Amino acid sequence: MMLALKIPSNVDKLLRCSAGALVVLGCAVLLGLYFHSKEMPENVSLSPTRPQPSPNAGDYFVQAAKLLTPDIDSIPPDSETIAQAAASYGAYRQYTLAQKVAIIQENQPAFAKLQEGLTSVHRWVQEPLIFGAPVDGLSSFYFRKMARALRAASETCEEQGDWVDAMNYRIDGINLGVDVQRDAGINGRLVSVACNVISLHDAEKIVNNLDSRFAKTDALRICKIDSESTPLYSTLVEEKWSTQNFFLSSFKSRNWRNAFFAGNINPTVPIQYDLLSPREAYDGFTEYMSREFDYARLSWPEQISHNQPSPANPLLANLFFTNYRHVFFYVNLTQTSDRFLELELALHAYRLDHGVYPTTLTQLTPGYLPTLPIDPFSNNQPFKYRPNGKAGYLLYSVGPDAVDNGGIPIQDPYHKENPYFPRSDNVKGDIVAGVNVF
């Protein structure tokens, strides 16, 4: 026999009131969360865009690449891979010297158009960026394509014994890489690195075949190009502006979170992303980039002694965190190689003029270089140098560990195809000219 439990009327009223209050409170919370998720950034507007003169250097570079014949670079825009690049270059190398010379001659209009860009007064290059990537990724493809063609032309000149033009084509590729950085974010910087890597491959082999006059002229040209390189801090400023503009444009859409977090949402807490407001996303990114700016201003030894910044909000970390230190490493690596070539040319010219290499690098200034280049991996110090009698000299950077190992080169036994090429910022040893090469 079951007993009926009778709730006193005053308790029943209290329970009903409590339940009603909880419903009201729940509705208020949900309403508050809804309005919070819609909260927009305050007192912000689209970052101003600089006027883009036309034609500009970037226009000339793209036009030049489009003039190239398939014989010199057969890679179509939609299938550019490392394997494709190797296959295309391998096919070019199969031609006879006479055929290569004819191909280079046929592509002179493309190289002339490139010169128009390199000498243009309108040096703006990169297309507008959206969220760290170009609107039209084809421009980046054409820049790399042009660098590959310049390297092919250089190697053909080497086969002919035309060392002057061989080096000129290489330096044009370095110049292209530096110009690609202008007004660009991280994507443009990485394209710049790619152009430099392509151009610098085996370039040091040309140096000893030049006479003093051309070696000195080429060293001064690289010195000037290097002085026009965009500081890493400025690259991050461009990245910040382009991403902020992407934010403000995307916030107009109800589905902006899908565009932002596609593939990055933690499936265990999807509701947290739905509650993230535009203001939280925008302010969180802006605060994160401010700390990245401070980090980029540090010297390399200071950077590796500090923790890399990351967004304070873990939800934003899935979206925004970029291993900028790895980007900085590759930028420093290519700058090191550029400056090695600059010094190798100046040292070669000095030896031809004096019969011996200088005892110190300071003897190169001001006769051969206006100033000595700085080791990007050091705390604003010049490269390490030691003459070695008739055998030549030892020239090296302290490398990504920022420690002077006495010229002991980096060696990575896990990469047998090229164990001396530094691939990460956590390797030990020095970057030695003529050994740790691309």
Would you mind describing this structure in some detail?
There is one protein chain. The chain is globular, with a radius of gyration of 29 Å. The strands form two sheets. Strands 3-4-5 form a three-stranded antiparallel beta sheet, with no helix packed on it. The chain has a two-stranded antiparallel ribbon with strand order 1-2. The protein has helices spanning 9-37, 57-67, 82-93, 97-106, 108-118, 138-160, 163-180, 186-200, 204-207, 212-227, 232-250, 256-261, 270-275, 278-296, 300-304, 314-320, 324-354; strands at 129-130, 133-134, 384-387, 393-397, 431-432. The protein is mostly helical. It has a domain at 234-323. A hairpin with a 2-residue loop joins β1 and β2 (133-134). It is 55% helix and 3% strand. It has 17 helices and five strands. α6 (138-160) runs parallel beside α8 (186-200) and α7 runs parallel beside α10 (212-227). The longest helix is centred in the C-terminal third of the chain and has 31 residues, at 324-354.
Q: Show unreliable segments.
A: 28-38, 126-136, 263-269
Radius of gyration, in angstroms, nearest whole number:
29 Å
Number of strands: 5
**Percent of residues in β-strands:** under 5%
SS summary, helix count: 17
Identify the strand order in the major beta sheet: 3-4-5
How would you summarize the topology of this molecule?
Layout: H1 9-37, H2 57-67, H3 82-93, H4 97-106, H5 108-118, E1 129-130, E2 133-134, H6 138-160, H7 163-180, H8 186-200, H9 204-207, H10 212-227, H11 232-250, H12 256-261, H13 270-275, H14 278-296, H15 300-304, H16 314-320, H17 324-354, E3 384-387, E4 393-397, E5 431-432
Antiparallel strand pairs: 1-2, 3-4, 4-5
Helix pairs in contact: 2-5, 2-6, 4-6, 6-7, 6-8, 7-8, 7-10, 8-17, 10-17, 11-14
